[in-house]
Prior knowledge:
Number of helices: 9
Shape: globular
Number of strands: 9
Amino acid sequence: MLQEDDIFADVRHLPQRPSNTLDTEPNQGSSIHPAMLTLEHGHELHWIALRTQAPTTAQVLHQELRALLENAWLIHLCNPFTGEETGEEKSRTPSHIHLMAPEHADVPEEALRAFAFQQGTPTPELHKSVLAHLRSELPGDTPYEGPVQTWQASCTLPGGQEIIEQQLATAASAKQSKDNEAPTAWGVQPGALALKLLASLHANPSNQDLVLGTAGLKKMEPHLVQTQSGTFRSMGPHTFLALCDLVATAIAEQVAPAGGRVDWADCSPPTSDTPTTAGQADELENQPAPPPLIRITHPKQSPIHVPLGLELLRWCTMPLQPGEHPPTLTEWVKGSF
């Protein structure tokens, strides 16, 4: 069920939209610049993370890079295309993610292993575009002018998922045009996005095809969750939000026999009317929608808040290591709740 109260407000953490320019001063001693560059190269989209010249350890570099990557993915996956953009401007999944660092900056390889980065050289055109940003926009009296070290990770989006994403996006756009209002945000109608996801597998879905809970998740998961290692396992934004909705219905089914209840948080994008702390109201206009969040309530127990968007991002999108075979989402739900 949908639940709106101060408890959700207290635990919610809005991701901050990363700038596409480098005019934000890095934190003192930060090893990763806070901006994630988005660059078009040919017909592909590239994300660029920038290593600063600040000394660091492998652990700190790993933590800062993970935070930047997770934030960028959450914003992308939780904010699908919804209206005015042309076909070329719709939400697009990157084909590659790059890490670039000054030639003499220390970049411990063990800090990059979890993100499937491989050292290499970008194409001259992409390298030139990134260097232009580095030289002209990085703060400081003496911008870095030398060559860079580069690492690259691929992002894989199977063709079958592209079809599902397009079906969901088309349905969302058609509903928006018909009702002349913004699309329904995640959590406002629990289970609605999940039903559309299940229906995407069938030309004429029957009631037997539209089963929520663990049965629906078990049916849908093989079509969505990639198992190959060494790549970011991409997913379209509409698909990701619908999968989060489906997983929430499975968790609700799992906790119900013991009297548990799941509440969906309203994950509408923040507006000027959104409750917030003093001084933040002006900053909300361009902020993204928050990631999916649920609350599990058991009789005589304190509520448990589950950052479902972040959990599924780590479970379904971040790279697997060679030989890693994690449990399925269905097994995770049955084993964790």
